Amino acid sequence: MNREMQAVWDAITEQDIDAFWRDGAIALRGVIGAQWRELIAQGIDKTVAKPTPYGRVQSKPDDPGWFFTDYYMWHQYEEFETVARNGPGGTIAAKLLRSKQVNYFYEGLFLKEPGTARASDWHQDQPYYNVDGRQICVVWIPLDPVTKETTLRVVKGTHNMGKWYRPIFFASDQELKGYERFEKIPDFDADPGAEIMEFPLEPGDCIVFHPLCVHGARGNPLPIRRRAVQTVFLGDDCVYGERGVEVEPRIVGHDFKPGDRLGDVETVFPKVWPRPDTESGLAEAAA
Ligand SMILES: O=C(O)CCC(=O)C(=O)O
């Protein structure tokens, strides 16, 4: 491992690992180096100029501000692919998930211009896509400082409730098709028993959360942009799982059957741990 990745590995304590599994989300400080953030910023500019086929404006035409999402940008822009393959996310995931191997799945963009009213509704991520397993995490990286008003909000412990809520499209508030067996998601703001974690963050910090943990975010009432990217990592126990008719993101590039181990197909899910540069010793040479 090169020095940067060793520092990331060492920054994550046993208490962080316990808190991740207990609460469903933690904040890590100063682990996303400036070079990775610069690449993500360049990738975001390219994505806004030319979205992938999955790009979507989530705010309505007369809503204040502008809320734009996209995903699978690494299929289109090398900036995202470089961060996916070589950035600190794989190291963070390997340590928190206690996984021997980690594979990259996708990233999602959540861009809210100043004054955006449209919120990211309460949801879990794992019901949206065909991944079963517990060793999975999302590294949520803001490129701009986020306050309590604009940060990710996570409902503590909801990844351990055994509940799967029906996924919804933010833009239309419609449920994705084919999820009748899941429950309708309640309004956690109206639940006095819900403990909502809100971590203010500076660039360089991130939140790591379990994708079964309920989360959401307000709009952006601040006078600065709020750019955030979620990057998703799969550990040893992740397999292909059945979902509904509509799935986001849909796995492309291989015909998986339920129960197939996702980490075995590196053309679809690049292996990011153990780090390829560790195996070849290249990073040590460059450090
Ligand atoms: O950043 C946001 O507004 C929402 C992020 C989110 O829902 C996610 O990362 O899954």
Describe this structure in words.
With 287 residues, this protein is an alpha+beta fold. It has one domain: q2cbj1_9rhob like domain (Jelly Rolls, Sandwich). Helices cover 22% and strands 22% of the residues. The chain contains 7 helices and 14 strands. The protein has helices spanning 3-11, 14-23, 34-49, 78-86, 89-97, 276-280, 282-286; strands at residues 25-28, 56-57, 67-71, 102-112, 120-123, 131-132, 136-142, 152-155, 196-198, 206-209, 215-217, 226-234, 239-240, 271-273. The strands form 3 sheets. Strands 1, 2, 3, 4, 7, 10, 12 and 14 form an 8-stranded antiparallel β-sheet that branches. The longest helix is centred in the N-terminal third of the chain and has 16 residues, at 34-49. It is globular, with a radius of gyration of 18 Å.
Specify the number of helices. 7
In total, the number of strands is: 14
Strand content: 15-25%
Helical residue percent band: 10-25%
Q: Given this structure, which CATH class is correct?
A: Mainly Beta
CATH architecture: Sandwich
Structure at a glance:
This protein is an alpha+beta fold.
